[in-house]
Amino acid sequence: MHPLIKKVLVTEEEIISRSKELGKEIKKDYENEGAPLLVALLRGSVPFLAELIKHIDMDIQYDFMDVSSYEGTESLGDIRILKDLDTSVKGLNILLVEDIVDTGQTLRTVKNLLMSKGAKSVKVVTLLDKPSRRVVDVQAEYIGFEIENEFVVGFGLDFNQLYRNLPYVGVLKDECYK
Ligand code: 5GP
């Protein structure tokens, strides 16, 4: 275990096993309408995307978007697109891949954006969900793990761009925030 990690909340084995279940569920749900385009939000969702796609037994494609909140306007859910999709979403079923749903603002804004660009449907798969932090009414259709209101790192999630490569989700020691 990394020396700065206080506790592990979700192990690598648990993430792999849950990704297998989610992959099966996703395949079943999209079997009739056809494989969705997976849209992953950079950078946190990359490890989860890489694990999940191994377990979706369909001919899927994926693309990336990078968004950030405008300074000072976070409460409005106003976001800036740093990298847009290379693929047109018009008429497509989209499955948004997230690392964590916290307040829900990013999710709601990106969902609305994709619908306004003509997506046929937008569903969400997230590795982690912090329902107690929600300020807007959005819900992911597929959730890996529900967690308490704690700041977590690992499996894509960072603190100052570090710890994304940890193969588990954990909480940093208090000294890291001093
Ligand atoms: P939301 O718009 O739902 O408030 O924010 C979602 C984004 O906030 C996530 O994609 C992630 O980048 C960041 N975030 C929220 N909670 C955590 C956390 O516990 N750890 C880390 N590293 N990032 C978080």
- SSE arrangement, N to C: EHEHEEEHEEE
The best one-word shape is globular
CATH class: Alpha Beta
Our estimate of the beta-strand percent is 25-35%
Widest beta sheet: strand line-up: 4-3-2-5-6-7
- Helicity level, as a percent range? 10-25%
- Biggest β-sheet strands, sense, barrel: 6 strands, mixed
Radius of gyration: 16 Å
The number of distinct helices, counting runs of at least 4 residues, comes to 3
The count of strands amounts to 8
Q: Span between N and C termini?
A: 21 Å
Which consecutive residue ranges, at least 5 long each, have pLDDT under 50? Answer: none
Overall number of domains: 1
Summarize this structure as a short list of keywords or feature phrases.
single chain; 178 residues; alpha/beta; Rossmann fold; 8 strands; 29% strand
